[in-house]
Amino acid sequence: MTTTAKDHLESWNTKIALAEELVPQIGKLYRENDVVLSVYGASLVGQSPIEIVRSHRAVRHIEDAELPLAQTAAVVKALTELNPAPVSLDIAKVLREVGTGDVTEYLRKEISNANAATGNGTDVVLYGFGRIGRLLARILIDHTGSGRGLNLRAVVVRKASENDLEKRANLLRRDSVHGPFNGVISIDAENDVIIANGVRIQVIYSNDPATVDYEQYGIKDAIVVDNTGRWRDAEGLSQHLQSKGVARVLLTAPGKGDLKNVVYGINHDVITDDDKIISAASCTTNAITPVLKIVNDAYGVTQGHVETVHSYTNDQNLIDNFHKGDRRGRGAALNMVITETGAAKAVAKALPEFAGKLSGSAIRVPTPDVSLAILNLQLEKDITREEINSLLQEVSLTGELRSQINYVESPEIVSTDFVGERRAGIVDGLATQVSGKTAILYVWYDNEFGYSSQVVRVIEKMAGNHPAHIPAK
Predict the structure, then answer these.
(1) Is 128 left (phi over 0), alpha (psi -120 to 50) or beta?
(2) Residue 224, class by beta-carbon neighbours within 10 Å (0-12 exposed, 13-18 middle, 19+ buried)?
(3) Are residues 298 and 437 in the same domain?
(4) Of the residues 253, 275, 296, the one at which a domain ends
(5) What are the beta bridge partners of residue 272?
(6) What secondary structure letter does DSSP report for 231?
(7) Co-location of 297 and 436 in the same domain
(8) Average pLDDT value for residue range 39-60
(9) What does the DSSP 8-state code read for residue 129?
């Protein structure tokens, strides 16, 4: 039977209507219960009806069929009746496990076994409010829920002008790369406060990380996220611990000395309650380490080279001027600039088995965001292009590193398609090249937003309130 234009439109409108009914229910579960719903890793929280339909359609790449919205509606209804504690629940994986069984009984059992987060949440302070700081703020605000998780309480900056507060709020409100803030922002100028989607953010002006009294603002046992890059060793970062109200410090750059460099999904289990200062490594390290682990576990990597094609950063000059670094003084928007990267060596801090195996170099290019890592790897055995692509695609959909690795196959994909990508790295399957024991992989990454998403995962681990997952794997 041939379908008509009317049939297609009616089918589409039916899906949209179902998704429109789901939006407020998903939102309520998140606001009141801190329940994060997803479909094979694609979050449904805060998504539009069209985005919800799209995530259900994407399931066809895994199960050869779309996930019916009616099945999701049944799971949402059961959850609403169960009134669960905070959990992160993947609807598609739940339905696959339940099969023809009773979904309500399955959820009741799994929820009772979940180690849910409790209490009033963890205070977070952003020390610095630049590119990464503002994106961390956006993500933390989106993740606030009922307030039992991470609570952004303050940002610390140097006062740069009389209308500093208004300018900071406007930079949070508008972003040339990532677009407008999703919500409402206002300021309380008298108290130096920014209010974003109901989240009260105290702006503290200080030049000294050791003398801020956070407790006077009601902030206690806070995790301070230093995104200035000014201090990268334990001695410099320990200044934060001298301030009242600070419990721990996280650096959003590669740490020096004996600092633990953590790539979430790879070695986040090394974080202990005794660790007062840790590093979330670099954007490039976060992008390539998960892919390298998968390839090494499956085929063994004997040697490799990492070439990063990296968007320019604020560290470079807009036009030619003096810079202490070689070549970085030349105009960033006009030139490709050969420079160094520590990502290859940093991989070994998260994956010790790569010590001495990787070399690396970098080219800064005239784009404001999204970078590309080219991994030229020598393996222990011969493989095929189809074999390695199939492995990485499967990991991106159902593997334990699905929150870190994405996979795409499109002949029209370019860098701007990955602005706002929440996963650390995206394997470009059509670009993969294999010859015997040599594999060349192209990994895209949003060096701002994807990295910031990884940083938030590390903060959740430090705070001990990362929500339990259903199913557990």
Answers:
(1) left
(2) buried
(3) yes
(4) 253
(5) none
(6) -
(7) yes
(8) 91
(9) -
On whether both 133 and 103 belong to a single domain, the answer is no
Whether 339 and 234 map to the same domain: the answer is no
Q: How much is the pLDDT for 423?
A: 94
85 and 144 in a single domain? The answer is no
Which residues 6+ apart lie within 8 Å of 44 measured at CB? 22, 26, 37, 38, 52, 55, 91
57 and 106 fall within a common domain = yes
Q: Does residue 472 carry a pLDDT above 80?
A: no
Strand extents, DSSP E, 96-220: 122-127, 150-157, 185-188, 193-196, 199-205
Is 470 within a domain? no
CATH number of residue 439's parent domain: 3.30.360.10
Burial of 3 (0-12, 13-18, 19+ CB in 10 A): exposed
353 phi-psi bin (left φ>0, alpha ψ -120 to 50, beta other) = alpha
Q: How far apart are CA 41 and CA 39, in angstroms?
A: 5
pTM: 0.91
Has residue 190 been placed in a domain?
yes
Instruction: Say if CB 337 and CB 330 are below 8 A apart.
Output: yes
The pLDDT score that the predictor gives to residue 115 is 57
Instruction: Determine phi and psi for 411, rounding to 5 degrees.
Output: -75, -5
* Contact status, residue 463 vs residue 439, Cβ threshold 8 Å: no
- Find residue 358's DSSP bridge partners: 304
Structural domain containing residue 437 = 284-446
pLDDT(76) > 80: yes
Question: Is 129 annotated in the active site?
Answer: no
**pLDDT, tens digit, 9 for 90 and up, residues 427-460:** 999 999 999 999 999 999 999 999 999 999 999 9
What does the alpha-carbon distance between residue 86 and residue 326 come to, in Å, rounded to a whole number?
49
Give the domain-ending residue among 61, 86, 113: 113
Q: Considering the domain boundaries, does residue 272 fall inside one?
A: no
Name the active-site residue from 75, 251, 283, 346: 283
- CATH number of the domain that residue 240 is part of: 3.40.50.720
Q: Is residue 136 part of a domain?
A: yes
3-class SS of residue 7: helix
Over residues 349-370, mean pLDDT: 95
294 and 381 both lie in a single domain: yes
CB 187 within 8 A of CB 195: yes
Residue 74 predicted with pLDDT over 60: yes
Same domain? For 326 and 393 the reply is yes
| Contacts with 35 (C-beta within 8 Å, 6 or more apart), sequence order | 29, 79, 84, 86, 87, 88, 89
Total number of domains in the chain: 3
What's the confidence (pLDDT) of residue 348?
A: 92
Name the band, by pLDDT with cuts 50, 70 and 90, for residue 116: low
pLDDT averaged over the chain? 93
